[in-house]
């Protein structure tokens, strides 16, 4: 923990870290893959609902992109969208969905090289070429709280 705190104050290290996320976001944007801008210091957020506009929120487009990225390149991402934030209004019985469906690509410190970032970008670019053929998912199990940790899905 002390090393992490020490490095977190090292301006050279911070510049390297910010440039690494910027590099990945730039590569993705050049491939026509939208990201939240500016790129973060620890992660790049891909706007999944712009890549998969044919998948409605209730079929979890960010989850679909997350699964496909794992299938394509063995790359783990995290859904930040309707699985995590959709909520049922107890008074109306209607679901409220977030506007953004994001795929978070967290970049652990001192782990990946530029060639790894290229691999991630190339994998997402490959997925984008077949995006219209991808399907959404249905929820088959979800706990009452924090469903994004242990939910289960089936492809539609």
Strand order of the largest sheet: 1-5-2
- Helical segment count: 7
Structural class label: alpha+beta
Question: Under CATH, the topology is which?
Answer: Aspartate Aminotransferase, domain 1
Number of domains: 1
Could you describe the 3D structure shown?
The protein is of the alpha+beta class and 156 residues long. It has a single domain, classed as Aspartate Aminotransferase, domain 1, CATH 3.90.1150.10. The protein is 44% helix and 17% strand. It is built from seven helices and seven strands. The strands form three sheets. It has a three-stranded antiparallel sheet. The chain has a two-stranded antiparallel sheet with strand order 3-4. It has a two-stranded antiparallel sheet with strand order 6-7. The radius of gyration is 17 Å and the shape is globular. The termini are far apart. The mean pLDDT is 94.
Please describe the topology of this protein:
Elements: H1 2-8, H2 11-30, E1 43-47, H3 48-51, H4 61-73, E2 78-80, H5 82-85, E3 87-88, E4 95-96, E5 102-106, H6 114-129, E6 137-141, H7 147-150, E7 152-155
Antiparallel strand pairs: 1-5, 2-5, 3-4, 6-7
Please sum up the structure shown.
The protein is α+β, with helices and mostly antiparallel strands and 156 residues long.
Question: What features would you highlight for this structure?
Answer:
156 residues, alpha+beta, Aspartate Aminotransferase, domain 1, three-stranded antiparallel beta sheet, two-stranded antiparallel sheet, globular
